[in-house]
Amino acid sequence: MNDPWQRFYQPPTHPLARLGLVVAGIGMLALSFVLGLFILAIAMGLAVIGFIVLAVRRWLGAGRRDKPEDDNLRVEYKVIRRESDQRKSD
């Protein structure tokens, strides 16, 4: 009787109370399992729908994409030269 857990939780001594706790525990586990299955089914459904949408977008968009003739990029740029502080002081 020196167990510190016994101070906080004392299992019921009546058999019906123990049976009720067992039934409540099994019910909570079953509810958690079913809820987890629903969440998993929703996540899998969203993943399948997303995969189908991405596949259709890729399939329909493949013909519209024009490939460039070469891999060179054509850009315009402007060179700005700044004088150093030594040249300005001279």
Plain-language structure description:
- It is elongated, with a radius of gyration of 35 Å.
- The chain has 90 residues and is mostly helical.
- The longest helix has 47 residues, at 15-61.
- Helix content is 62%, strand content 0%.
- The mean pLDDT is 84.
- It starts with a helix and ends with a helix.
- It is built from 3 helices and no strands.
Defining traits:
90 residues, 62% helix
Average pLDDT for all residues: 84
- Please state the CA-atom Rg, rounded to the nearest Å: 35 Å
Number of beta-strand segments: 0
Individual helix count? 3
Question: Uncertain spans, ≥5 residues at pLDDT below 50?
Answer: none
Largest sheet: none
Provide the β-strand percentage band.
under 5%
Overall geometry: elongated
Q: By helix and strand content, what is the structural category? A: mainly alpha
End-to-end Cα distance: 95 Å
- Helix coverage percent: 55-70%
The arrangement of helices and strands along the chain is HHH
Quick rundown:
The chain is mostly helical and 90 residues long. It is 62% helix and 0% strand. The model has no long low-confidence stretch (mean pLDDT 84).
How do the strands and helices of this protein lay out in sequence?
Elements: H1 5-8, H2 15-61, H3 85-89
